[in-house]
Records
---
Amino acid sequence: MLPIHKQIALSDITVRREQLRKNNQTLIFTNGCFDLLHVGHVYALEKAKKEGHILWVGVNSDASVRALKGNARPIYPQEARLYLLNALQCVDGLILFDGTDCARELELVQPDVYVKSGHYALETLNPNERRMLEKCNASIRFIPPLPNWSTTKTLERIRELFEKEP
C-alpha cells in the first residue's frame, strides 16, 4: 500500500471546501486519467495551480479509464497514478472518481476555477461537467498544451521503438 496523504474522501469534500471558503482561498479543480504521467501533465498541473491557491485533482479510477479508453488501459493502476500525483508539489488534494465524468464530484467540490488542457474547448467539455460548472459559477480556463506531449503520442513513440528492435 503506497502512502497517498493528499487523497480526499468524498465524505470529507464539503467540510474541506467550507474551510477553504472561510480562509478566502481560491479552489482550482482539474481532472483526468493521468494514465501515463508525462511532461505535458506536470506542465498543465503547474499552470493550473497558478490560477488560485489550492489545486484539487480528480483522477479517474481504473474502471473509469477502461470505460473511456478501452480494456488495454490504464497503463498504471489507480494507486500508482495517485501516488505519482501525490508527489507533485503543485497538487494539494486528490479525488478518485468512478464515473466517466466527474459531475457528481464537481457538485461537491464547487470549484472557483476549473482548468482543462487546451486540447479541450468549451464546446468539447463533457456536457454533464459543463452544466455543473455553470451551476456553481466556476470560471473555466484552458491551459495551452505542450506540443507533442500526450499519453497517446507517448504510447505511439514506445510502440515505434519496439517495432524497430530486431
Note: The CA atoms of residues 103 and 129 lie 5 Å apart.
---
Amino acid sequence: MKRLHTIFLLLALFLFPPNLQSQDWSEITPSAGEIPPGRRNADAVYDAQGHRMIVFGGETSAGRVNDIWAFDFVSNSWENLTPVIGMSPAPRRTPNMVYDAANHQIVMWSGLGTAFYNDTWRFDFSGNEWTAYNPDGTLPEIRYGAVSVLDPAAGHLVTFGGFTDQGRFQDTWAFDINNPQWNEITPSQGSPGERCLHTAVYDTLHHRMIMYGGINNAGRLSDIWVFDLAQQTWTDLTPASTPPGRYFTVAAYDAGNHRVLVFSGNAVGASTSNDLWAFDLNENLWEELTPAGSLPPNRAGASGIYVPGENRMVVFGGRAGNYLNDLWSLNNLSQPTSISDLDEQRLPTQITLAQNYPNPFNPATNIGFRISDFGFVTLDIYDVSGKRVKTLVSENRLPGNYTEQWDGTNQLGQQVGSGVYFYRIESAGYAITQKMLLTR
C-alpha cells in the first residue's frame, strides 16, 4: 500500500506539478477605474458567487461613510455598488457584515455613526439595493465594535460583544435572517468577558465562531475563544504563548490549513503593526509567519477576507497616519514547500469529485460529487482558456452524494463547440478540478 501511495504521488507530481512557492505578500494594483477612498474600520466579506471582495462603510478623511464597493478578482477592478436611490444604512464605522450565500446577499448590523446603532439591513446583489429589516421581539443594545459570523446551517447572524458609552458587552445573540428576529443565546456558563474591537471568523470544519483579541478596561487582549454554534457554548483556547494583545486587527480562516490568520492592528507597544500570526486549530498553538515579498506597511483598522479555492488572504485599507486604500494579497497559504510536504499534506476530505460519465460525451454528461459538511458549494464549467462557461451549482447543500448534468451549453443556453473542458467544485475552502471531452 505504501508503494502504491508513493507511485500515486509521483504520478500526481508529473501530471500536476505543485506550486513550490512559499507564502508571500504582493500588492494588488487595480487594472482601471475608480478606487474607493482610503478608510479604516470598514467591513469586508467574500462574495462566492461573484468571486469578489465586498467592502462597506468605515471612516475616511471626510468622515464616516455608507458606500459599498466590490473588487472583482477576474477583472482586477473596483466597482461602486452604492445605490443612488432608495434606502441605505446611515454612515458608520465597525459595521458587522456576513455573506448569506443561500440568498446571495449581505446582512449587516450595528456600528458607530452620528450615534450607536442596532439596526439590521440586507443588501441584495440581484438589484444592488438595501432593505431594512424590522425584526420582532427584543433587540440587542445599540453598540459598535462587535463581531459577527454567519451560521450557515441555521441561517443566523451570530454576534458577540461590543461597546457603547455605557460600557462594554459580553452577550451573544443570533439574528434569524429568513424569519427576522433576534434571540439572545448567551450561555449560562463560560464567557470571553466584556470587550470590543475584537475580531472573529467562521471555522467551516467544526462549525464554530473563532474570536480573538480586542480591548477591555484592563487594556489590549490576546486571548482566543471558540463558540460552538451547535452546542452554543464558549471555550477558551488561549495557549501559554500568544502574540502581543491588539485590537482593530484583521483575521481570516485559512480553510486549507485549518488555522486562523491574524494581521496588523493596534498592538501592545505600537499604535500600528504589520506582523502576521497563525493559530493552528489542530494544535492550539500560535506561530508568527514571515512571508516573502514586500510587506504591507503598518496599519490598524484594515479589513480582509479569505478567498476559497485560491488559498489566499486579501487585505484592504486601514490607517497609519493617513487613511489607506491599498490592496494586498497573502498568497500560497496552502501550497506545499517540498515534495515531502506534499506527501504529508492532508488531502481534502470535505469534498470528492468523480470523473464525469460518459466521457467523451455528446450531447450531455453526468458529474457526481460528495460533500461531507453542510456548506456553500459551487460547480462550474470552464473552457481551456480558463473562461467560465456555465455554473451548475451555486448554493448551500446538505452533506451527501449528488449528480449534476451538463448538457453542453453555456450560461445563455447556447451550445458550445467540441473540445476539452474542465469542471471545478469548491466547498469549505477546498477545490477540485477534473477535465472532460465534448465531441460534436
Note: The first strand starts at residue 24 and ends at 28.
---
Amino acid sequence: MKKFIWAVALCFACANFAQADLIITGTYDGPLSGGTPKGVELYVLNDIADLSIFGVGSANNGGGSDGQEFTLSGSASAGDFIYVASEDTGFTNFFGFAPTFTTGAMSINGDDAIELFQSGSVIDVFGDIDTDGTGEPWDHLDGWAYRVSETTPDGSTFALSNWTFSGINAFDGETTNATSATPMPIGTFTPAAVPEPATAVLFGLAGFGLCVVRRR
C-alpha cells in the first residue's frame, strides 16, 4: 500500500509540474504587398527531438477549426523561436531574417484564429475559432498580437489576458518592423520559471498528502 501511495504521489507531482514543449507567442498581419508578412511565432519551451509531432492550422473568419494544416519538421532546442509564415520574401524584407517554415495555411488576417497541435490534439490557441475577430478585443488587422511573458499554453480555450496587442492598422504605411512606430516585440517572450524536480516532487507529495488526509 505504501509503495502504491508513493507511486501515485510521484505521478501527481509530475502531472502538476509537467510543461508543454511548444507555445504560440505571436501573430502578425503585415503591410507589404499582399498583406505580408502573415503568420505566427512559436517558442520552444523544452528540447524537441522531433518537431513532426507538432503542427498549426488557421480558423478563418470564425468558420471553426480546419484541423492541422501544416506539420513542422526537424528538431529544436529550448529557447528557440520558430516562425511559420505564409511566404518568404515579405517576411524577410519586413523582419530582416528568413522564416523557419512557409505555408499557405498561414495566409491569415488579424481577425483569424490559430491553433497549435501536438499529436493531433490542440495544445494552444490564439483567438476564438468560432468567432470572426473583426471588432473583437483580439483583432489586430494590419498589426500584431504578442503573448505576455511567463504565461503558459492556453489549451483549446483562448485567454485574452495572456496577450498584448498593437491595435488595428498599427503597421499601415510601415516598411519594416524595426522602423515601425509600434513594432512587434518579436523574439522577446520569456517563459515562466520551472520548479526544480525535487521541489516539484515535494509539492506533489504535500498535495497528495492533503488529499489523503481529507479522504480519511
Note: The helical segments are 2-17, 89-95, 197-215.
---
Amino acid sequence: MAKINQSVTQNYRIRPLTFSTPLLEGESLTSWLIRAALRQGCSPLTFTHYYWPEHRIWTYDVDKGFKYINSQIHSDIAVLAVTAIDAINNQTLINFSKILSIESSSKVALLWTQPLSKRNRYSRIGYPYCYECMTNNKEAHLKLQWRFTWSVCCIEHRKFLQVDCPYCNLPYQPQLIEPEQEFINQCHSCHHKLDKTTLDTIPSEVVYKFQLLANQVLYSKQGTILGKVVDIAEWFDYLLFLINLVRQALKNPDYMFGKLLLELGIDLSELSSPKTSLRFDFLPLEERIVLIEHAYYLLQVECDDWIYYCQELDITQNSFQWSKRTIVPKAFSQVYDQLPKVPSREYKKQSSGIHPASLEAVMAAWSRLQRKIEMRESYDKHLKKE
C-alpha cells in the first residue's frame, strides 16, 4: 500500500486542511483544488495563491499536473488531501500522455485531451461535465476521464457531457466560482446549479460500447486490433488512424475511401465533414460523436475483409498516405503490407502564380473564424462582469 508523502516541504503552510477534502477516485486536480478551496471558505484563486504564491496556477491547464512547473506541488497536494503521492501523479493528463509516449508541455494541448483554450484564468472552452453527476451539492465533482476527447458521455448515467451552462449558455468555468456559491456545481456567471441538459438526445448503444472499450484499454494498458493484442499506444494510434480515414471518406463519399467504407457497411452519403477541419480533439461534441461511431465499427472489421475490399477497389499503399504527416500505424501493417505500392510520381515545379484556395478550404477557414469570434464574445462578456 502506498504511503502518504511525509517529506518536509519548504512551504510551512503545507499541512492537512482544517476541513478535510479527500481526493476522490478518478477526480481531476481542477475539481479537487476548487472543492478544497470552497470547503475552506475561500475562492480557488485565494487558495492556490496562499499555498503557491510564486505560481499563477489557474493560468495553466491544472489537470495536466504540475511536474513541468514544480513537482513539489504534487507532494504538497498529497499532504493537504492526506493521500498518497502516487494518487496525485496518476490522476493527471500528463500521466496518460506518458503512457502513450506523447510529448507534453505547459502550453500545448495534449493529444486525446479536450483543450480549455486558456486566457489568463478564463477558459474559452467550458469544462466538460455530466449534469446528473452535478445534482448533489456535496457529492458533485469533476472526473479526469471527462477531459479525454473519446469521452462524449457519462458512463454512469448514459448522458452526453456538456461544456456550457444550460441557463446562460456561457462556458462552464468552475475555477471562477466564488466562495459564497459553496459548491462546484454552480455557474460562475448566473449562479444557477448545473442541473439540466441542453441536449434532448441520448448516446447510442454504439457510442456507449465504444467508450467502455476505450476505458478498458486505458485501464488494462492493452487492446485487440485485427485479432492481435497490442499495447495501449498502438491501440490509440490505430484508433486515430481510423478516425482520420473516416474524415478522408467524408470529404468525398463517392471517391476511393467513401467506396471502401460503403463496402465495409458504412454509408456516409447523408453525413458531412467537420466544418472547421481542426484536429479531432478540437472538434465539438456532435462532430466527435459521428467520427467515434464509425471508427468503432471499423475496429470490428477483420484483416481479411480489409485486404479483400482494398484489392477490389485497387487501393494501394500510396492511397493511405493522404498527407505528408500521415503515419500508417504499426497495427495496420498486416493489411498495409499486403497491398501493392505504386512508384511515387515526380511532380513538376508549379508556377509561382496565385492559386485560389478550394471552396472546402475557404469554408473551413470561415468556420474557424466564426469559432474564434464566438469565444471572443464569450470572453468579452466575462470581462464586463468583472
Note: The longest strand covers residues 222-225.
